Amino acid sequence: MQLDNLNIDANHLPVLETFYSLQGEGLHTGLASFFVRLGGCDLSCWFCDSKESWNPYINKLTTPSELLVEAQKYNSKHIVLTGGEPILYPLDQLINLFHENGYSIHIETAATAPFVKDLDWICVSPKNHSNIHNEWFKHANELKVIITDIEDFVFAEDCSKLVSQGCYLFLQPEWSRSKGLLPHIINYIFKNPKWRLSIQTHKYLNLR
Fold this sequence. Notes:
Layout (H helix, E strand, L loop, with lengths): L12 E10 L9 E7 L21 E3 L1 H8 L6 E5 L9 H9 L3 E6 L11 E4 L10 H5 L2 E6 L4 H9 L7 E6 L4 H14 L3 E3 L3 H4 L4
Parallel strand pairs: 2-4, 4-5, 5-6, 6-7, 7-8, 8-9
Antiparallel strand pairs: 1-2, 1-3
Helix pairs in contact: 1-2
């Protein structure tokens, strides 16, 4: 992905959208959170449910201060940075500003760029067709592998060997194939109980 002529820096981030919703996936399912979706991605996963985020040029360059003003309209102190791929951009000003105002910052990343410090919760969702920066695995609080077919279990196991012992492990069916995949994933978890099931509950609830 080319970012030329975007004038992106730590104080001008390409934001596709912000919204207040319940976290629908992983360990924090059900947690009221303010989501910041940054535009631009260095992957093109066929199963991505936010393809509109791939093009950074259609997004509004937004300052961390403007994002804070939006977040303060809601009661939750949990921020989720998502994308696209949020780690493509300098996040230090955003992280520092939100921390100064008492927020906890969660991030969802495919770990395709260098590690970002001072995040409160890291969900690594690696893709098996990408280059992964392994430092993210060392610091991951949560590993979430999207299962698109049964061959992905091998990739999931390979990733699980790279995270710390305290990292939570999740298998999540690709949404459009979830009906067919869920029985296989459930059976796999019965046999390998270190894993947990993640489903996109926000979609079942018609939430963002």
